[in-house]
């Protein structure tokens, strides 16, 4: 039996291969490989898709987060509230922007940043940085209400095309960042990212900071760095963006199939969707109360590319020891790290593949 990967990037490539090759030929012949008309066109298309006026292409998603935070000109060392259960890049960007990560726990049902925990740290917050984890939005209305005048920055790296109460990810906060890392729902062929916002002043600041602080050649208005989007990546992203609505729909269908296949399996909880959310299933992660690592090993031995996102929460990472948290600080995130198991899911996954995943998982659990 052939292996079932966690994500199948080749299957996505097959759908856009011709368009991408033509675009690459055109760009390679043009001799211009950074920014240019393809990046500008992608920025317009992605802004429209995100329901905002401006998008700025960046070199990757971590830079996009840093640029969004820097553009806000928050006071040096200001607290930025983010969930403990996220990819480490969210916290890295805060530190790199000269700010201070203020971690909070997540809600036990959806594992999204918990507004009740945010309320507790609000006095030390200069901004909120919710993460739209696994493809669904954090509870934006309560967070915006809590934030008051403080800016809300969305980490939308896992939520391209997701909506809440009909409103797209990226259009809720003052500014949002996303990643086009190859495995994301909209993935480049290398690193890329974007910042989206309705605020023209912020978009201009992001553009400036990500291009050596320069809007005009050799005039450097403010301190910046280099984080521009490659032209070839824009070609890929334009071709894939056109397919993204259909791909996200296919992910929803696949998630519903897993829900049905796994209903009633003992020892396992399927993921929950927050009411009002239109999920895009970047990851389909079940919770396994006992024996997660044994089950993971059995799936992998059977050629099924299951994974764990993320085995160690941010506050227990050696790199973030300086924040001063020890085990027990964020019990919900810690328990999730011990129980979560991500199953293969991508738009082209077949019913037969999903059935095999579910059967193998059921057998492994029965032996625990
Ligand atoms: C992928 C990801 C990032 C970082 O994106 P890169 O493009 O890899 O730098 C940031 N936040 C979250 C939640 C992510 O999943």
TrEMBL record:
Keywords: Aminotransferase, Pyridoxal phosphate, Transferase. Transmembrane segments: none annotated. The keyword Transferase applies. One of its GO terms (biological process) is polysaccharide biosynthetic process. It holds the Pfam family DegT_DnrJ_EryC1. The keyword Cell inner membrane does not apply. One of its GO terms (molecular function) is pyridoxal phosphate binding. InterPro entries: DegT/StrS_aminotransferase (IPR000653), PyrdxlP-dep_Trfase (IPR015424), PyrdxlP-dep_Trfase_major (IPR015421), PyrdxlP-dep_Trfase_small (IPR015422). The modification N6-(pyridoxal phosphate)lysine is found at residue 184. The active site is at 184 (proton acceptor). Its EC number is 2.6.1.-. It comes from the Bacteria. Belongs to the DegT/DnrJ/EryC1 family. This is DegT/DnrJ/EryC1/StrS family aminotransferase. The lineage of its organism: Bacteria, Bacillati, Actinomycetota, Actinomycetes, Kitasatosporales.
């Amino acid at each position: 039996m052939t292996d079932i990967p966690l994500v199948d990037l080749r299957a996505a490539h097959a759908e856009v291969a011709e368009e991408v090759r033509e675009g690459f030929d055109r760009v390679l012949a043009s001799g211009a490989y950074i920014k240019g008309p393809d990046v500008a066109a992608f920025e317009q298309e992605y802004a429209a898709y995100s329901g905002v006026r401006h998008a700025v292409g960046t070199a990757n998603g971590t830079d996009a987060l840093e640029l969004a935070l820097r553009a806000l000109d928050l006071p040096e060392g200001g607290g930025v509230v983010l969930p403990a259960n996220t990819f480490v890049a969210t916290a890295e960007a805060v530190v790199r922007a000269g700010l201070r990560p203020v971690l909070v726990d997540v809600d036990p049902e959806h594992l999204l940043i918990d507004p009740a925990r945010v309320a507790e740290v609000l006095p030390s917050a200069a901004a909120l940085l919710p993460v739209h984890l696994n493809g669904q939005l954090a509870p934006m209305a309560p967070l915006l209400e809590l934030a008051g005048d403080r800016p809300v920055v969305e980490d939308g790296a896992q939520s391209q095309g997701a909506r809440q109460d009909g409103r797209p990810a990226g259009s809720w906060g003052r500014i949002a960042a996303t990643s086009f890392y190859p495995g994301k729902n909209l993935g480049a062929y290398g690193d890329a990212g974007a910042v989206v916002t309705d605020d023209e002043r912020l978009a201009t600041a992001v553009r400036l900071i990500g291009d050596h602080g320069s809007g005009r050649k050799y005039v450097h208005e403010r301190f910046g760095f280099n984080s521009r989007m490659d032209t070839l990546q824009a070609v890929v992203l334009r071709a894939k963006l056109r397919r993204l609505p259909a791909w996200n729909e296919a992910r929803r269908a696949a998630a519903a199939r897993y829900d049905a296949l796994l209903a009633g399996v003992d020892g396992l909880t399927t993921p929950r969707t927050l009411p009002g959310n239109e999920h895009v299933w970047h990851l389909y992660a079940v919770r396994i109360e006992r024996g997660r690592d044994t089950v993971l090993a059995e799936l992998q031995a059977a050629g099924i590319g299951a994974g764990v996102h993320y085995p160690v929460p941010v506050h227990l990472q050696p790199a973030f020891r300086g924040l001063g948290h020890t085990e027990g600080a964020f019990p919900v995130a810690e328990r999730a790290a011990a129980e979560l198991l991500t199953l293969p899911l991508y738009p082209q996954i077949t019913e037969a593949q999903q059935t095999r995943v579910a059967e193998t998982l059921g057998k492994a659990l029965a032996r625990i």
